[in-house]
Amino acid sequence: MVRRVAYPDIMEVGVSRVAALVVALGLLLIVGCTPQPEASEYQLSTRDTPMYRIAVVGDSYTTGGDLGGLGNKGWTTIAWRQLARQGVQVTADVAAEGGAGYVIPGNRGSIFEGLANNAIRPDDALVVYYGSRNDQGIDPAAFFGAALGALNVARRVAPSAPLLVIGPPWPTADAPPSVTMIRDVLAADAQTVGAMFIDPIAERWFVGRPDLIAKDGVHPTDAGHAYMADKIAPLIASQLPKRS
Fold it and tell me: Of the listed 93, 124, 219, 222, which one is catalytic?
């Protein structure tokens, strides 16, 4: 599944003099009673702000579902909003499938390599891979080759785009060996292709925060998706090429 999300430039809207006066008075009242954010926190985009195209490949942690993260409550949409408030406009192709991994097919039969082929374009400014705990139990050698094949899709299709590879998260401090194996092999693959690797297990994402994971013990809640956006949006911003 590929979703394209774009945030358009802010357009000026004409109003009558009377309406403008009413709005101005309302703003004065709001300013007088509401704390204002720091100027550096909100850098609204304009029609001159560059647009970045990125691709995201992932599993159910990215698609969201009935337990959390559906629609505009998913981490991707929240992250794009956060970036827009910083003056970073993003248009994103998100290819993610519940149950999918680098080796294990998802609920529609896709693996990460196929999802990457659907999402990545030659003009991408960044490619993000996130996951996947779904590959538990796979032979390490088979996983190494499959993950390397998926990452090489980005290197082939968008050779100038930086790669951000985020390993599988785990909601407790005692991730099983089958998951740490995925993490370790994926880190080696990321190093091979020159990608930035992020380890949610070492960084203790979700640990000690039961409110972020649904009752099934696996999938993030809406709060969990907001949490992921807070983690991932700055990583994306750090990898985007600087443009004047």
Answer: 219
Q: How many domains does the chain have?
A: 1
Catalytic residue, candidates 60, 110, 132, 222: 60
225 counts as catalytic: no
The catalytic position among 40, 48, 216, 244 is 216
Q: What percentage of the chain exceeds 90 in pLDDT?
A: 78
- In a domain, residue 244? The reply is no
**Averaged pLDDT of the chain:** 85
Q: 70 is in which domain, residue-wise?
A: 2-6+13-239
Residue 238 a catalytic site member: no
pLDDT, residue 48, reads: 60
The full 3-state SS of the chain, as one line of letters, equals CEEEEECCCCCCCCCCHHHHHHHHHHHHHHHHHCCCCCCCCCCCCCCCCCEEEEEEEECHHHHCECCECCHHHCHHHHHHHHHHHCCCEEEEEEEECCCCCCCCCCCCCCCHHHHHHHHCCCCCCEEEEECCHHHCCCCHHHHHHHHHHHHHHHHHHCCCCCEEEECCCCCCCCCCHHHHHHHHHHHHHHHHHCCEEECCCCCCCCCCCHHHECCCCCCECHHHHHHHHHHHHHHHHHHCCCCC
Query: Predicted confidence band at 22 (pLDDT cuts at 50, 70, 90)?
Result: very low
Instruction: Give pTM, 2 decimals.
Output: 0.81
Q: Is residue 75 part of a domain?
A: yes
Active site residue 219: yes
